[in-house]
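Render this sequence as a predicted structure.
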Amino acid sequence: FDTGLKKNILHYSFYCNQNITHLQQILKPFPIPKNIQPWIFDAIQVKSVKIDQLRGDIDLNDPDTVIKNISLIANFNQLTYTFDKNLPPIVSPNTTLILQHGILYIYPKEAVFSNQALQNSWLDIDLLSQHTKLTIHFISDLQLSGSLKQLLDYYGIKLPFTQVSSTTKTLLDLNLNLHNDHVDANGTLRVHHSTFAYNGANIDTQNGVIKLDNSKINIQQLTLIHNHEANISISGNIDVIKHKADLLFYPNTIKSQEAHNTLQLKSITKPLQYKETEFQSKLYIPASDWSYDHQLIHINQLTCNVDKKTKILQIPNTDIQDS
């Protein structure tokens, strides 16, 4: 451990060629601000640490700048990082930690969050902001269910669906204010083939690109599939908190067979539109042509009320004409 003092500036550097089992004992002599100490001394648990670099300056007239002036590079063996006591920790067998310019970067390898592999995900903590901020950068194939959905729900990010099969290619930044638990979530979810549970029903999906801005969901593209009977493309917006939605449904195929009779969509003038507000939900169905038991029929446009809880359509009396 080398030190030098010049004009009230204490220069220091630390070197160690072996693993250290008590990181806190090394860092506690530094005048680390009290509001930051829990995120270093309490949140981080490790089996051992190898410090590759620890150096910096301490202004004896302004010791609160110690974090800004620390340069630390270390490798952690068997890291457990607890960012919230009410949630599972992030666990990694090997982790690189870098502290520079007041920002703590955590790069875990083979990390796991509640049995889900985090792959290329990483974290950073801005220790200099007025309210310490943690950002979890999810870069992984994750299933939007279980503890991950619990994590989002816990911080007020309410998704109206749960993934029950396959995974979602997740690029998601979760920004947590560690003083008041305020959270911002922004990112992109990409689905190849998967099944989601929504309103009590399992829905097969493919080719989905969904943008997430907190509880505002922008479906850029998504295809809904039901056996060989329906193939419908969907786009639009959902605001879960405000109970608002504006979705467009583009039927590619709709075909239903009962006994020897087949009902099949032949043409439709424009997409169906589903609009939901806090007080009501409606489905606007444009005029369309169908084939029923080898007979062509035309159905005029109609507006259906939708029960907000059950999502059951209330279909009004409608004119059906031979084409």
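Summary. The two ends are 90 Å apart (CA to CA). The helical segments are 23-27, 37-42, 146-154.
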